Amino acid sequence: AYGARFVAFSDETFPPLLKEIPDPPLGLYVRGNADALASAETVAVVGTRKASLYGTANARKIARDLAASGKIVVSGGARGIDTAAHEGALDAAGTTFAVFGCGLDVVYPPENAELFKKIAANGGALLSEFPFGKKADRRTFPQRNRLIAGMAAGVLVAESDEAGGSIITANFATDCGRAVFALPGRVEQPGSRGCHRLIREGATLATCAADILEDLSGKPVQQMLALKNACAETGENLSAEARKILAALRGGEALSPDAVAERTDMPFPLVSANLLLLELDGRVARKADGAYEIVL
């Protein structure tokens, strides 16, 4: 039904790490590449639905670099950080899993319908332990969060307040003996308080994918990131929007975000998000007057 299959706990493609948690599901409804579930090379990237530009850009970049290194990015398909994580993995032509807090026939949030199609069509998978017709409610999301933590070798909380669902995911990961990472933010930013609390309580501070990869592998990751660096040099892992922005800046003059939006005919919020991502990548630099120029 609905183009999905049921993967039982006893199936060889059932996520191996998920079998280790105290209360694994009897099975999963899966749409997309069910065979990919058999991999243990998984990292979850989660966070608040009310994400800041900083949190969104960093989550997308880290997820992209994790995917470029061969990791499968797991998240919950929600607005904000989850969406950025899935999009980052797709930017790198990588694999990503979206774990639903409802039945697979319930598209939630509805604005992510196209994203979910892309995930399933590009080697990833949509999955849920809930039957068709089950709608999301306050109880289903904590259950969903336990699956995200359970099927991942490590969990990165990219942005969260102190009481967010991402904290539930991190706590469950800790209980299961999985690695927990947190992205630091500004001290005055409410959305970073949860991350800062996790760091105080023992989570590993992570500012880039290399921090996560090194911790999980126990060794430096220069070789693991060689493919990522090659892609970065050629621009193969850039989104179409980022390429348009770089093309606009290649004329040599520094441009304000407004000017970039005008030249590329892109919405200002999309321009701002991509400029920050390109700045984090070291591809563009922001001048004192707020204009951006390409880094040669």
UniProtKB/TrEMBL annotation:
Q: Which domain of life is it from?
A: Bacteria
What is the protein name given in its UniProt record? DNA-protecting protein DprA
Which family is it part of? Belongs to the DprA/Smf family.
Residue ranges of the TM segments? none
Task: Please list the GO biological process terms of this entry.
Answer: DNA-mediated transformation
InterPro entries tied to this protein = DprA, DprA_WH, DrpA_SLOG, WH-like_DNA-bd_sf
Q: Which residues form the DprA winged helix domain?
A: 235-290
Smf/DprA SLOG domain location:
6-216
What is one Pfam family matched by this protein?
DNA_processg_A
NCBIfam families (UniProt xref)? dprA (TIGR00732)
